[in-house]
Specification:
Oligomer: single chain
Low-confidence stretches: none
Distance between the termini: 35 Å
Strand content: 5-15%
Number of strands: 8
Number of domains: 2
Structural class: alpha+beta
Strand order of the largest sheet: 4-3-2-1-5-6-7-8
Shape: elongated
Length: 379
């Protein structure tokens, strides 16, 4: 009776949320290497560096940014530790890609490629719904994700053969080559893919609950006797006032600080202006932005170039550190390229699980009705 109840519950829930789960899984596949794709997109505009070629200083880049938008005080300059790479600059909400040698504006805004990636991300998170209906769409994806967790848990029980022996276990663990019909093939695919991806899919789905539900954050932070943070407040920018030191000097100090603190292999550095009065923030990152433990924030005094403070991932509260781990475990990035690949393949498997689940449900529910109706017509 329990097996029968779980089977029909599993089937009904699967049909109800299948399309949403398929969308989230398919977009998850497309977002597998998002960080690498974004980095590659900017690198397409890299140029071959000539010997002794003049490189724009940080002050010159900042001056150009302030000319473009004189009333914007919050500015980011993203320096990548690679010769010939263009410089992304954010001036308030406006983004530019600037040549590091001539100051020429290579690109205004994001490329069409990255805009497509942003649309895929919106589709993944809230079905790309905008306006007043977005909140409802977020609820749909949130509860679909939660019900997907139910499918994973019940699927483990339903996977177990009625008679457990070597033959039955082998048929549920390995792909077969010869099938009597399409139903048998999809049945085999559903069971084999389901069991082999059960652990990564469970991790992907359970970590996603933290993004969707406040109670999940309460559980996460509560494990460390902490209160989860409330909604993010919009940061109030300050007037951008130059200090006694040049910003290029501050940049040099930041690079030396990285060398002295085991980050000489930094991939990129974010220079943030207008965050604090009298200070400039440098975010030194050894990765593509997918591991908080490999990055740290450095604040330098604009007048003296002295270190005001350093904030590393280890300086966060235990709850915040745990949230950071959950953030990158969800995408697999916490485990590097291998983790991303496993997450992407598991998402692809989830797409196939939805497809085979629908075809098996069709055979179970619709085909008997069609045969019964056909029989009634004949009679």
């Amino acid at each position: 009776m329990l097996r029968k109840f779980l089977f029909w519950t599993h089937l009904v829930v699967g049909i109800s949320i299948g399309i949403v789960v398929f969308i989230m899984s398919a977009t998850g596949v497309l977002l597998t290497y998002e960080a690498q794709i974004i980095d590659w997109d900017d690198s397409r505009h890299s140029v071959v560096v000539k010997e002794d070629q003049y490189i724009l200083t940080t002050d010159e880049v900042l001056q150009l940014a302030r000319k473009l938008h004189p009333n914007e005080h919050h500015i980011y300059i993203h320096r990548v530790n690679e010769k010939g790479r263009p410089i992304p600059v954010w001036i308030g909400p406006n983004r530019y890609l600037i040549s590091p040698y001539s100051g020429e504006i290579i690109q205004i805004g994001q490329s069409a490629f990255i805009k497509t990636m942003d649309f895929i991300k919106a589709l993944h998170r809230w079905l790309a719904v905008e306006g007043k209906q977005q909140a409802f769409a977020k609820e749909v994806t949130a509860y679909s994700n939660l019900l997907f967790l139910f499918l994973i848990i019940t699927g483990v029980y339903l996977w177990l053969p009625k008679r457990i022996n070597n033959t039955s276990l082998k048929s549920h663990l390995t792909f077969r080559r010869n099938f009597k019909n399409r139903h048998a093939k999809h049945y085999n695919w559903h069971h084999v893919l389901g069991i082999w991806t059960i652990i990564p899919l469970f991790i992907i789905v359970i970590t996603a609950t933290v993004f969707h539900f406040h109670w999940a954050n309460e559980i996460l932070y509560g494990a460390y006797s902490e209160e989860p943070p409330g909604p993010r407040q919009k940061r109030i920018t300050v007037d951008l006032i130059n200090g006694k030191q040049t910003y290029e000097k501050l940049f040099s100090v930041a690079k030396q600080h990285a060398v002295d603190n085991g980050a000489n292999d930094w991939h990129s550095m974010w220079l943030e202006f207008g965050r604090e009065v009298g200070n400039t923030r440098f975010y030194i990152d050894r990765t593509l932005g997918n591991n908080y433990d490999m990055a740290y924030a450095l604040y330098l005094d604009n007048d003296t170039a002295e270190v005001v403070r350093v904030k590393r991932g280890s300086d966060w509260s235990n709850g915040d550190q745990a949230w950071g781990v959950v953030r990158f475990v969800h995408t697999g990035e916490y485990f590097g390229l291998i983790g991303q690949t496993i997450a992407g393949l598991s998402s692809l498997a989830a797409c196939i699980l939805v497809y085979t689940g629908f075809t098996l449900s069709w055979r179970r529910l619709i085909q008997p009705l069609k045969r019964k109706r056909k029989s009634q017509i004949i009679n």
